[in-house]
TrEMBL record:
Belongs to the CBF/MAK21 family. One of its GO terms (biological process) is DNA replication initiation. It comes from the Eukaryota. Residues 154-173 have a biased composition (Basic and acidic residues). Pfam families: CBF. This is Nucleolar complex protein 3 homolog. Residues 115-173 are annotated as: Disordered. GO terms for molecular function: chromatin binding. GO terms for cellular component: nucleolus. Residues 243-394 form the CCAAT-binding factor domain.
């Protein structure tokens, strides 16, 4: 068209260029074995930082690279693409769009040591064919002579050996390619982590480290933990970045890092403070991230003391009052896990318990805040929540999170994760247990009181007394 002298307006040229780019992106994803694949990558990857058409070009290229990473089973295409992305980030002096580095989250790096399946030329897809070959002499019976059967058996054994050799070579190739990808990705991550701490790329770097921390060599664990510790101490991080630091540290210490002599207390303190920052305007992904950090912490039960667990249970209960219903359910589900894992959490429901010290919610360390002296009065308030789901879950916790009986959760609700519960209110939930009929008497059970008519007067009175005592100790007006 252009050779014939046809002139196009600027808008038409932009539209034509967008269509051409879409064609290249679709060709790259659908036919990654195309012989001009590298040429297309060279054209697509630099446009991941483009600002043309209000960012539509950049979004298209980033989505294409993400799809390419997800669908690449071996890693050869991913390696070429990662090299170009790393080169692009360096050429921009590590000042580029976070979406560029966030595309690394879609790399298939979780299955480096998995056996090669039928889609990669391994032995899994040839099992049925081998069974058919073995049954061939039996079907033919007397049609084959002894010499022919012997020859067929030798051919079958040779074919099986060849397939096993191909599978081994394919597995070794996959491991080698993904090892190179890891080296490139972590080189970028560590460079940004050490030298660009106030860069907008810090958040996707922390997300990547949290996801791939189990693949990092043990030799780098100490340096990584020291960097994460300094990041958390210096401050200046957003609440999400702080929780990502904590999650990365927990990931490192949960695998091969268990052998390291590292005290994670500072990260517990950071998580304890970050949870308090959650409120009604917090994104769902921030709520899920905080609950994921709690799950990682609870898995190391031998290293988490009872006082620390009680402190987190009280902090989560307090925060639940300032969250939207879906986020509140996610927090309550985490509290339920703590109650089921630590039966001593029942003492927080006992209004007659006697413990040394006074609960100090302003203390930054959950280990020394005397949470054992606190009361979970929040659930008496949540038991009158306008949301039936929150009301039912709070009533369940108020009765000690029973697994059976009238106040037990529906099995489908009990299985739901924090991520499921955050978005659960967009669709109907299974029914919660019906509330107790109004009763003016309090029933004592297992050392703590339940009240079915509403908020317990003695719990509220004791909470008010603690608040007044705390205010006087700080000279509040």
């Amino acid at each position: 068209m252009l050779e014939d002298g046809l002139s196009l307006s600027r808008t038409s040229m932009q539209d034509l260029g967008e269509v051409a780019l879409r064609c290249m992106c679709e060709l790259l994803v659908c036919l990654p074995h195309f012989n001009f694949r590298n040429n297309i990558l060279v054209a697509v990857v630099p446009r991941m930082t483009s600002r043309s058409l209000a960012g539509k070009i950049s979004q298209l290229c980033c989505e294409t690279v993400e799809r390419l990473f997800r669908e690449d089973l071996v890693g050869e295409v991913s390696l070429e693409c990662v090299r170009l992305v790393c080169k692009l980030v360096k050429s921009k002096s590590y000042n580029t769009r976070p979406a560029v580095l966030r595309s690394f989250l879609h790399l298939r790096l979780q299955s480096v040591d998995e056996p090669v399946g039928s889609r990669e030329g391994g032995g899994g897809g040839h099992k049925k064919q081998r069974e058919r070959d073995e049954a061939l002499p039996a079907r033919k019976g007397s049609q084959l002579t002894r010499k022919q059967r012997k020859r067929l058996k030798a051919e079958r054994d040779l074919d099986r050996d060849l397939k096993e050799t191909e599978a081994t070579e394919s597995r070794e190739k996959k491991t080698k390619l993904q090892t190179e990808v890891l080296q490139l990705v972590f080189a970028i991550y560590f460079r940004i982590l050490k030298n660009s701490r106030h860069s907008p790329l810090l958040q996707p770097v922390l997300e990547g480290l949290a996801k791939f921390a189990h693949l990092i060599s043990v030799d780098f664990f100490s340096d990584l933990m020291s960097v994460l510790h300094s990041l958390a101490e210096t401050g200046g991080l957003t609440n999400k970045e702080c929780m990502l630091c904590v999650l990365t540290a927990f990931e490192v210490l949960s695998g091969q890092g268990e052998s390291l002599n590292i005290d994670p207390r500072q990260f517990y303190v950071q998580l304890y403070g970050a949870i308090l920052q959650l409120d009604t305007v917090s994104l769902n992904e921030d709520i899920v991230l905080a609950m994921e950090c709690m799950d990682k912490m609870m898995r190391k039960r031998r290293q988490v003391s009872l006082q620390r667990v009680l402190g987190f249970v009280k902090r989560l209960s307090t925060v639940s009052l300032q969250l939207m219903p879906g986020a509140c359910l996610a927090v309550l589900s985490t509290v339920r896990k703590c109650m089921l894992s630590y039966s001593q959490c029942d003492q927080l429901l006992d209004s007659d318990g006697v413990c040394g010290g006074v609960f100090r919610p302003e203390v930054a360390d959950p280990e020394v805040c005397h949470a054992s002296s606190a009361l979970l009065w929040e659930y008496t308030i949540l038991s009158r929540h306008y949301s039936p789901a929150v009301k039912g879950y709070a009533t369940h916790l108020l009765h000690g999170a029973p697994t059976q009986g009238r106040h037990a959760l529906h099995p489908d609700i009990a299985k739901m994760t924090a991520g499921d519960l955050v978005s659960s209110l967009t669709q109907p939930l299974p029914p919660f247990p019906p509330p107790h009929p109004a009763n003016k008497t309090a029933v004592k059970n297992k050392g703590y009181y339940y009240h079915d008519a509403g908020i317990r007067d003695d719990v509220i009175r004791k909470a008010e007394q603690e608040a007044i005592k705390l205010a006087k100790s700080h000279n509040f007006d």
